[in-house]
UniProtKB/TrEMBL annotation:
It is an enzyme of class 3 (hydrolase). Keywords: Glycoprotein, Hydrolase, Signal. Residues 368-427 form the Purple acid phosphatase C-terminal domain. This is Purple acid phosphatase. Residues 161-353 form the Calcineurin-like phosphoesterase domain. GO terms for molecular function: acid phosphatase activity; metal ion binding. The keyword Glycoprotein applies. Residues 1-18 form the signal peptide. It comes from Klebsormidium nitens (Green alga). Belongs to the metallophosphoesterase superfamily. Purple acid phosphatase family.
C-alpha cells in the first residue's frame, strides 16, 4: 500500500508540473466553410444532394421522465410523415410514434429543410435506463439507418447520473476532437451551455453542424441554452432573434411552466436543472425572473438534492475576454440562486476553462454555488489565452485549452466534476473536484433559505 500511494503521489505531482509545460493548441477553421451541395438557397435556386430526401441531423431531447423528443431534418423540404419506429430489440420495431414537421425562413434568401419532431413515451412511458433502437422518417418514403439511445435512469435522490457539459462547440477539427472524446465515454445526458453551430446567419452551417453532432446527440438526451451566436439578427432586431435555434432545437420549456424556449428546467435522477437565458429579459419582474422564482419554489430537495444552473455568459470570469458581460444578469439573479442553495453553475462564452470556489457576491462563501466556465468546446474563434493577473483567490483553476467536462452524481450527497483536456488523441483529466450537496443532511447551509 505505501508503494502504491507513493506512485500515485508521484504521478499527481508529475501531472501538475506538466500542465505548466503544456503547449496550447491554435485555433482551426470551420470544417467545410461553405457547404454548397448540402443546402444552398439563393433567390429560388437550390443545388440538391442526391440524398436530399434522407433523414439526417437526428438528436434526442429529454422531455420528462419516461418521455423524449426526437428531431431530424429532411433537406429537400418534401412533405413526408413524421414517424419514429422503435423497440428495445434491434430491427424489431414494435412501437411507432408520429409527430409534426415545420420549416422556417431566414430573410428572402433561405428556407430550411423540413424539421420533424416526434415525442416518444407520450402514451406509454419509456422504460428507465433502457436502450431503444429506432429509425426515423416516412416508411412510405425514406427512413434512416438504425440508431439507438439510452433512456435516463429512474428518478431518485441516490440514483447515479453522468452529465457531459460543453460550451461554444462550433464545427472545427477541435470540435471533432471534443465530440470524438465524448463518444468514447459512457454518459447519460449532454448539456451545452450555448453557442452551438456558429452559423452566424449563414444558415447552411446549421445543417453541417447537425450532421457533425448526430453521432453523439442521437444516442443520449441533448439539452441546451442559447448563446449570443444563436441570436442571428441583421438590423432592427430582424429577422426574429433565435429563429433557427428555436425551430431546430426546441427544448421542453412548457413542461416546466416557461413561456419561452430560451429558459426552462427539467429533472433527471436526483437533479433539478435550471437552464437560464442570458439573452432574454432577466430583471426582477420580467417573465424569466418570475418563472425562476416560481420554479425554485417547487423544488423538493428531498427528491432532487442536486440543484444545477446553466447559462451562457458567466457571472464569474478572470479572463480578459468578455469581462463584465454577465454582470447585469448576476445583479438580478444571483440572490435567487444563492437563497435556493444552487450547488453548481455552468457557463460558456469565454473560450477557456475556469473553476471557481463556492462564491456569493464576489467572495468565497460555503453556501454559494461552485461556478465553472466551459466555453472551450472547439469553436473557430480560438482560445481566450489572457487572464487577469494576479489570479483572484476565488479562482481555483484556469486554463486556456480545448476540452469538455463531466459532472457525475454519485448519490444524494456526493458528486464529482472532471474537466478533460483534448490533448492530441488522448483525453487528459486535467481538473477534478468532489462536491457535497448543499441540501445534504447536516449541511450548515440548509436546503432552502426563504
Amino acid at each position: 500500500m505505501p508503494v502504491l500511494l507513493t506512485c500515485l503521489l508521484q504521478f499527481m505531482l508529475a501531472t501538475a508540473l506538466s500542465q505548466d509545460d503544456y503547449v496550447r493548441p491554435a485555433a482551426k477553421p470551420d470544417i467545410n466553410p461553405r457547404d454548397w451541395d448540402s443546402k444552398n438557397f439563393w433567390f429560388g435556386w437550390r443545388k440538391w444532394r442526391k440524398d436530399a430526401d434522407e433523414p439526417e441531423q437526428v438528436h434526442i431531447t429529454h422531455v420528462k421522465p419516461g418521455q423524449v423528443s426526437v428531431t431530424w431534418i429532411v433537406p429537400s423540404r418534401t412533405k413526408t410523415k413524421s414517424v419514429v419506429m422503435y423497440s428495445t430489440e434491434p430491427e424489431k420495431y414494435s412501437n411507432e410514434a408520429t409527430g409534426v414537421s415545420e420549416t422556417y425562413g431566414y430573410t428572402i434568401s433561405y428556407k430550411s429543410g423540413r424539421i420533424h419532431h416526434v415525442t416518444l413515451g407520450d402514451k406509454k412511458r419509456l422504460l428507465p435506463d433502457t436502450t431503444y433502437y429506432y429509425r426515423v422518417g416516412d416508411p412510405n418514403s425514406k427512413i434512416s439507418k438504425e440508431l439507438s439511445f439510452k433512456t435516463l435512469p429512474s428518478q431518485g435522490p441516490d440514483v447515479p447520473l453522468k452529465f457531459v457539459v460543453i460550451g461554444d462547440l462550433g464545427q472545427t477539427e477541435w470540435s471533432q476532437s471534443t465530440l470524438g472524446h465524448i463518444s468514447k465515454t459512457e454518459y447519460d445526458m449532454v448539456i451545452l451551455a450555448g453557442d452551438l453551430s456558429y452559423a452566424d446567419r449563414y444558415q447552411p452551417r446549421w445543417d453541417t453542424w447537425g450532421r457533425l453532432v448526430e453521432p453523439v446527440f442521437s444516442r443520449a438526451p441533448f439539452m441546451s441554452v442559447e448563446g449570443n451566436h444563436e441570436i442571428e439578427t441583421l438590423a432592427f432586431n430582424l429577422p426574429t432573434p433565435f429563429t433557427a435555434y428555436n425551430a431546430r432545437y426546441p427544448m421542453p420549456f412548457r413542461e416546466s411552466g416557461s413561456d419561452s424556449n430560451l429558459y426552462y428546467s427539467f429533472e433527471a435522477a436526483g437533479a433539478h436543472v435550471l437552464m437560464l437565458g442570458s439573452y432574454t429579459e432577466y430583471h426582477p419582474g420580467s417573465p424569466q425572473y418570475k418563472w425562476l422564482e416560481e420554479d425554485l419554489s417547487q423544488v423538493d430537495r428531498s427528491k432532487t438534492p442536486w440543484l444545477i444552473a446553466v447559462f451562457h455568459a458567466p457571472w464569474y470570469n478572470s479572463n480578459f475576454a468578455h469581462q463584465g458581460e454577465g454582470d447585469l444578469m448576476k445583479a438580478a439573479m444571483e440572490g435567487l440562486l444563492y437563497s435556493a442553495r444552487v450547488d453548481i453553475v455552468f457557463s460558456g462564452h469565454v473560450h477557456a476553462y475556469e473553476r471557481f470556489d463556492r462564491v456569493f457576491e464576489d467572495k468565497a462563501d460555503k453556501c454559494g454555488p461552485v461556478y465553472i466556465v466551459v466555453g472551450d468546446g472547439g469553436n473557430r474563434e480560438g482560445l481566450a489565452t489572457k487572464y487577469l493577473d494576479p489570479q483572484p483567490s476565488i479562482s481555483l483553476r484556469r486554463e486556456a485549452s480545448f476540452g469538455y467536462g463531466a459532472f457525475e452524481l454519485a448519490n444524494s450527497t456526493h458528486a464529482v466534476w472532471r474537466w478533460h483536456r483534448n490533448q492530441d488523441e488522448v483525453t487528459v483529466t486535467s481538473d477534478e473536484v468532489w462536491l457535497q450537496s448543499l441540501a445534504r443532511p447536516g449541511s450548515p447551509c440548509g436546503a432552502l433559505v426563504t
